[in-house]
Amino acid sequence: MRIILIGAPGAGKGTQAATIKAKYPIAHISTGDMLRANVKEGTELGKLAKSYMDAGKLVPDQVIIDMMEERLKENDCIAGFMLDGFPRTLPQAEALGRLLDKLGMKLDAAVELEIEDEVVVNRLTSRRVCKACGEIYNTMLKPAKVEGVCDKCGGEVIQRDDDKEEVIRKRLAVFHEQTSPIVDYYGSQGVLLKIDASGAKDAVLNLLESKGIR
Predict the structure, then answer these.
(1) Is 152 among the residues known to form the active site?
(2) What's the CA gap between 115 and 9, in Å, rounded?
């Protein structure tokens, strides 16, 4: 199984990825994790990426693609992979396509997790996080027993700045602007699968398997 997960902030990509990985022994590749690992290990690509980050600049697409090439050659990708958070733009999607061609790999599906903006806003504005241990709460579904106090460690439970409505709406606007061309791109290649991400967490896996992707 070789798939890409496409979804807005709050669409549940992490949850869906965990559900898929629990059943299939494929690599879950997050570009953020991949970037941090290269920087921590001091690889040549990591040093190059760090030079951009230290200067407050975005890491160029080609550096990310080069890291992706090295990552896809690792043994845990033999059985397949799941990309989470990449590609984010059309140029990245096109570069990834060229990389997969170079490696002789074929993408099985680009899975778009569809969800209404208002559902995302309600979901994320309800989220709270413990400053001390990182435990996650939800004011509607899983509130702390004592408001503002972590059940687990007694730390302060707060709403992060990026979970405030105005920030979320800006993130959603950027996501829609960047992602529409990617959705069209994979749609034209016949590998786009759309699913309702507001439903049960097993929906992605059920859809993939119904399409013969496993």
Answers:
(1) no
(2) 10
What average pLDDT does range 110-132 have in this prediction?
93
Structure pTM?
A: 0.81
Select which of 160, 164, 170, 211 is catalytic.
160
| Tens-place pLDDT, residues 9-19 | 888 888 888 88
Distance CA 194, CA 137 (A): 29
Quick one: tokens of 178?
Answer: 């960047």
End-to-end CA distance of the chain: 5
Q: Reply yes or no on whether 127 is catalytic.
A: yes
Helices 165-188, 117-125: axis angle to 10 degrees equals: 140
Instruction: Note whether 52 and 59 are within 8 A (CB).
Output: yes
Q: Would you call 71 a catalytic residue per the annotation?
A: no
pLDDT value of residue 51? 93
Q: Is 98 a catalytic residue?
A: no
Determine which one of 2, 71, 123, 127 is catalytic: 127
Tell me if 120 sits within 8 A of 176, measured CB to CB. no
